[in-house]
Structures are given as structure tokens and as C-alpha cells.
Structure prediction request, 658 residues.
Amino acid sequence: MLKVPDHQVAGHQARNGQLGPLIDDSGRFYKPLQDDDRGSKEVAFYSSFSSNTRVPDHIRRLFPVFHGTQLLEASDGSGLRPHLVLEDVVSSRSHPSVMDIKIGSRTWYPEASEDYIQRCFKKDRETSSLSLGFRISGLQIYGNEESGFWKPERKLVQNLSAADVRVVLKKFVSSNLPVDPNSDPDCSFAASVYGGSTGILAQLLELKAWFEDQTMYHLNSCSVLLVYEKEKVLKGERSDAEVKLIDFAHVTEGKDIIDHNFLGGLCSLIKFISEILTSPDECTTKACLRDSERDKEILTSPDECTTKVCLQDSDKNTNYSENGTIEGM
Amino acid sequence: MLKVPDHQVAGHQARNGQLGPLIDDSGRFYKPLQDDDRGSKEVAFYSSFSSNTRVPDHIRRLFPVFHGTQLLEASDGSGLRPHLVLEDVVSSRSHPSVMDIKIGSRTWYPEASEDYIQRCFKKDRETSSLSLGFRISGLQIYGNEESGFWKPERKLVQNLSAADVRVVLKKFVSSNLPVDPNSDPDCSFAASVYGGSTGILAQLLELKAWFEDQTMYHLNSCSVLLVYEKEKVLKGERSDAEVKLIDFAHVTEGKDIIDHNFLGGLCSLIKFISEILTSPDECTTKACLRDSERDKEILTSPDECTTKVCLQDSDKNTNYSENGTIEGM
Prediction:
């Protein structure tokens, strides 16, 4: 029996008669192919990738398993439509905390149409993509049985400042309720979810090493999904934290060049997560997604977090002496 | 006695009454400050960087030494003008081979004016910056006493294909004459110039590790200079290959974010140089900077260099069967 996924945090959604992905009870995720060439491009990528013997196993694990395509009744009632058949990466979890992060400061690529390039260029500048090298496309964080999930509006999370992204990444691994703006994220799951030899950071570092070397694919506008189950961590069970790459409708051939755009953005995300692991108690803040100016002030005031350098225009207070050094610098 | 530098390969040049940098016999390089804010910005960067105790010594070595500023007669005869006083990085060399590589797929930055952004955006797309993550801004390769330097036109080298960049990076470390289009670059200096514990690759990797961590500066539109002396290598002396970062007129504060744009481009350059070290004999070609289509064919035909993946639009030859898999893939 096909149904609408409960834990989708970004992308088209199959609600209210819209076209979107479906899941079944066997752990499969059915993603409808768009009418334009995005759908066929994503099929082409999955076909190439799944049969590419040069992809090492530890990297293949970071991608959803591909089971071909299948004609299914589309969720918008428009009749039969081809769907990608993929692994449903959250199927084994009851209350998964999920974050969808679109990687790269640039989501367009040279081969795209000028119209597409201009639209992406505008959005990359309007969101945090340009400054951070990635943008959060959507997220849900499980609180508890009573509070359920905290699922902030997507528009709100796409353009977070560095300070706000830090807070969200902390909330993602904290035991206190994410929805409560007055509680400091305690980062109490940071070590078990982000850290450790199989945690999210270790998986991202494996991905990074591969991107430093592979010149086969450029994963334009692709996301990493971070997933884990809070209840498992609370029970002291081994964390099931997972990284999965998704959304390959704009993949292009690498042509002997590494994907420096994806790699740069990935390294930026890695730096954010590393910092939480090395200093989880610093830079905490009570406010999040409410008063970014106040956040910024609180977040950047501890010494550990400031990296103040002075690069002000020195024109106004600089005098050049004829004998050499600058006065007034 | 101030004079025009002999070995400048990019940037404004002090010839024919133009404004440009000067050198003296003491190993100093005098760079005139532009009238707009570029000059003062570069002074601000050097001042900040030279007094920044958080920059480790092994990284500081990769930047020219800063000796303040000085008022000097400008090379264009316009009178006294403040100049940056820097280390002349080629002063101790008689016939340096030099390559200036502007790092980053994006040379603009959010704080710049819209006009500047649009001009850079256009140039990044027209040159190899966007595709490769860097562009060669200029180079000179020493052949021998008779042939002198090979110094291709700057416009020609800014938009090289991946295959052509590979050839140029090989010519840079080859004993045969760079100007001869019919001789395969033999890469006979690759191990001593690019390789080794103090070679160019090792220096670039140190820089990379720093950029993965530092969030103080974003080096927009900055170049790495690769320099070495062929004669030293020929004599079997220890290679004096050096990496120096230059051009800081567009540096901005990092604001707790790594410079993912510089880092991505740097990783792309590192990949090119690593490949030459691991397989210098493969992918050689006779043609360079002449017939890029032919180059591409020759360069990509050996198995070691191809990374063919099939990402063609599969629309036209794909039939979707109702029972599942795609036919015709």
C-alpha cells in the first residue's frame, strides 16, 4: 500500500493532490519523474552510479540503494507515471530527526540554460548558500512524545546566518526540546551522533576524501541528509546516525575535474560540525531563529568563537610618511 | 636603484609609462597602491596578517614578507605615491620559472558592488575559473640560454581546458623546451619540483589543511605563485620550489566561516598536480595551446585518464515497462 512519507523535510510533497514521492511498507521510496529532463537525468545518474565499479563500497553506502524505475499511479491523480524506486532511508526509524542540507555555494552549472542559471544565482545569493557553502533545505528534530517534532518553516532555515546554523546543528543533537527558545541546546548527543568512528562526522570525512579524488560526477544542487533516532541514543544503544546523499537531477559529468563546488561546501559543513564536537559548551545561546542580531552577539562573544580580524578600509585614518612606514595604522 | 621587475607574469606592469610595481637590488618589491580602495584594502590585509599571532609559521612562510609602506615616485611619472613594500619572491633567482594561478571558481564576494560582481561573474564564466576552480593568470617557463623564456599570452592561458592545463603544468616541470609544440613534456623535474617533502605539492597541502580550519580571512581573487629555478634542478641541487600567495586587494573577513571557495579551487589544483606526480608518463600530448580539440582527444584516450560516465539524457531511448524496470537503458 503506497502512502505519503511522514518524514520528508524538503522537496516536492505528495499532499493535497500534489505530485510527490510515495513510500510503501517494504522500505522503498518512489520518486515521480518530473516532465522536464530532471527526472530522466536523475534516472541516468542512478543507473550510472549503481553500475559504476569505481565507486568504493564505503562511498556507495552513503547513497540510497537504487531499484530501477516503475510505472505507478501518480499522487496527483494524473495517472500512470514513471517513478524512481529507491531505498527509503528513514523506513526503519519511528521518530527520526532529519536534516536536509543542500551542498555547494553554487547550485547551477555551466551547461544549464541561462534562465536556470540566473534563477539559481539569485537564490544562492538570497540564501546562505553563497556565504556558508551550503543551505539547510529543511529539517525536523524530534523532541518527545508530547511535543513531537520541531519542524521550522523551510523558508526560514534556508537563509540562516553562521551563528544560527550553529544553533540548529546543536539543537539537532540536544536532549532538551528544540522548540523551546529559552533553553540552551545541551549538545548531549553530539558525541554519539556527530562523533565516533561511525558517526556523522566520520561519514562526512569519508565523503570528503572521495570528493578530493573523484572526477566522474559533479553533484550540482545535491543534498546530504543527516538522520538519526533520538530514542535509540536515549536508550544508550549504538547510534544509527546516517549520512545519505540525495537529489541527483542536476548531476553532470566530471570531465577529469573534481567537484570543487561540492567539496568546498562540504568542508564548510564539516568545520561547523567539528567545532560542535570540540567545544559543545561554548557559544550556546538561548535564542534561535528569532532574533538573529542578538544571537550573533551572544554567539560570537566567547573568546573561543571569535576570530576577529581587522580589515577595515584604512584610508581615512592613514597618513603616509615620506620616509617609509604608515602612520595611524 | 628602482627598476621594473623582469619576472612578473600577471597584474599591472610598470612598462611604457604605466603604473606598476618596482623592485630594487635588496630583494624588495614595491607595489603601488591603486587610487580606489584596493590599495588600502591590501595594506589592511598585510597589516592584519603580519601581526596575527594565530597564523602558524609554516603558513606565514607561504606569504611574502611585509615591510610596511613607503612613498615613492610612481612608475607612471605621476609623482609620489604610497607603495606596499614586500619581499620580492624571485629576487634570488636568475631564470625563475613562474606560474600565477588565481584560485577560486568565484572571484567576487557578496560585499562587493553589483557592478563588480557582474564583471567578475562574466569573467569567471568566460575563463577556466568556473570549470576548474582556478585560472592561470600568467606564466613563464625557462627553456635554456638560447631559447630563453616561454611566456604565452595571458589571454590565452586564462581559459585553458582541463587537458591544456594538464599540459602546461607538465611543461612547467619538463626538461625539454616548453615552446616546442612537437615535443612531449617529459616531466623530468616533476618529482623534484612538485614532489618531495618540501616540494610544491607538500606546500599546497599545508595550505589546504590551514584553509580547512581557518575562518579569519576569505582570500577572494587571490593567486598562488609557483616558482622554481630550472638550473638548480639541472645541477642536481636541492629544488628551491616555492609557493607564495599574492594579491590581497579583495580579502574579506571570514566571519567564522571557512573560505570554501578558495579551498575548493585549491583542492582542484592539488588534484591536477598529484596526477602528474602519480602518472607523469601518461596523457602526454604533442600539441599544446594550438588545437585544443585534438589535445582533448589525445589526452583523454589512454585508459588511465578517462573517467567516462554516461549521463546522457535517457529520454529518447527509454521505455518504461509497467512491471518495473526500464527498458533500453
Remarks:
- The mean pLDDT of chain B is 85.
